[in-house]
Structures are given as C-alpha cells and as structure tokens.
Design a protein that fits this description.
Largest sheet: 11 strands, mixed
Radius of gyration: 23 Å
Structural class: mainly beta
Order of helices and strands: HEEEEHEEEEEEEEEEEEEEEEE
Strand order of the largest sheet: 5-6-2-8-10-12-14-20-16-19-18
Number of strands: 21
Number of domains: 2
C-alpha cells in the first residue's frame, strides 16, 4: 500500500513538471560536385558555420534552421548556387519583420584543397578544420577557430577570439590574422620558417620567438623564425596576441 502511494506521488510530481519545449527546426542536406581546387563561398547572417575537409570531389551542405516561431522558418531560405568551379552557399531572408529571425547552422564538407575564397558571417562563430587550400574568412560577432591549415590564410573578426593552427607553412603563402575585440592565438608547426610582424594596441604579445617592444601605439614584435619563410601579420586592438610552436609542446627525450 505504501509503495503504491509513493508511485502515485512520483507520477503526479512528474506530470506537474513543465515539458521541455524544443524550438522549431528544419533540416537541409545536399551534395554538389566540385573540382579539388574549386572555390567555396559562404554568407550567413545568423548562425554558426562549421567547415571540414575530406578527400572527395564534392561539397556536402548540411544545414539546420532554428526559430522560436515556426512561421519564422520559412523566412530563412538556404540558397546554394553551383557553377563551373564554384559553389556559393548563402542564407536569404524574406520579410525580416520578426524581432527574433530564424538562425541557420551550417556544416559544410569541402575538398581538402578547395579555395575558401569568401566566407562571411555576421552573427555566428566559424570553425574550419583540415583545409590546405587558401582561406579568406571573417565574422563580425563570433569566434573563429581554424586548425590543420596549410595554405594562404586571411582571417578577421570584430567581436570574438581568433585561433589559428597550421600543419605547414610555405613562403609563398602569407598569413594575416586580425581582431578588434578578442584574443588572437597562433600555433605554428615545429621547425617551420616564418617572418612574424605583430601589433597589439592593448593586451600584450606573448611569444617564444623574441621580446616585444613597447611604443605609444601598443606592443610590437618582429621575429624571424628559422631564417624566415612565410610572412605572418598579426593585428589586434583589444585582446592579447599569443604565438606558440608545436615544438614547445613536445616532451623532451630523456638520454641514457
């Protein structure tokens, strides 16, 4: 009898809890042929974008729309425009009367050597992994994290941290990282050669490759690593700059 009463009380308590309400969503998934050195362009106003690489000659676009109101889902349209040697992916908004428009989260898989020649986000973070071709990307309000890079790179953000890690550097492939309000973290491959020029107005510069100098307009660092190589430009306004090498993280071998 006591057990029955406890069971009833448990069921009543569970029924009185508010049900978890998930926001309306709609999914999109489609692939498009693209040559290994083809171009990929992306525009997204609201929502995060993740870009990963694979060894296929096609672009896979996976997207999910989120909205507090189901009617808002139709106002955000996922537009993919494939053409010769290029795939352009963008979010187009119709009406835009809502105070809280739908957001679109993208996961885009591209050929490893593809050219990311135009990646533009307004309100959302960007993640890139494994792309060895050129990358040009920006975000206004959102973090940028790029890893396992290998080509010419130009990354910029206004409000958010910026992190970039490279598998290899090439003298012919310059690198530019720019932030206004957010830290910059750069990771270089072990033994790579580079010429680094860094300027930070507020927040300092940390680097194992030399001591920064202090001036009226902030901290500056010029460092030639392993006789030089790739030209690297780092510019920040409010937030630190940190440079490190994967060599620094390798444990030292013990000698007998």
């Amino acid at each position: 009898m006591v057990l029955s009463r406890l069971l009833c009380l448990t069921l009543l308590a569970a029924s009185s809890l508010p049900a978890k309400i998930e926001s309306p969503r709609a999914a999109f998934r489609q692939s498009y042929a693209l040559a290994p050195n083809g171009c990929v362009a992306i525009e997204n106003l609201y929502g995060d974008v993740t870009i990963v690489a694979w060894d296929r000659e096609e672009v896979l676009v996976e997207a999910t729309k989120h909205a507090a109101d189901p009617e808002r889902l139709d106002e955000a349209r996922i537009v993919v425009e494939p053409s010769a040697g290029r795939v352009f992916i963008r979010t187009q908004y119709i009406g835009m009367k809502a105070l809280r428009p739908a957001s679109v989260e993208y996961r885009i898989t591209v050929p490893r050597t593809a050219r990311l020649d135009y990646i533009k986000l307004i309100n959302g973070g960007l993640s890139i992994s494994g792309v060895s071709g050129p990358v040009k990307a920006s975000s206004v309000n959102g973090a940028i994290k790029a890893e396992a890079l290998g080509g010419e790179v130009e990354l910029s953000t206004v409000n958010g941290p910026l992190e970039a890690a490279f598998n290899r550097l090439n003298r012919a492939n310059p690198i530019s990282l720019t932030s206004v309000n957010g830290a910059i973290r750069l990771s270089l491959p072990a033994g790579a050669g580079a010429s680094v020029n860094a300027h930070n107005r507020s927040g300092g510069i940390e680097s194992p490759f030399g001591k920064p100098s202090r001036a009226n307009d902030g901290d500056r660092l010029h460092a030639v690593i392993n006789r030089g190589g790739a030209e690297i430009q780092l510019n920040n306004v409010n937030g630190g700059i940190s440079i490190r090498s994967t060599w620094d993280r390798h444990p030292r071998r013990s000698s007998l």
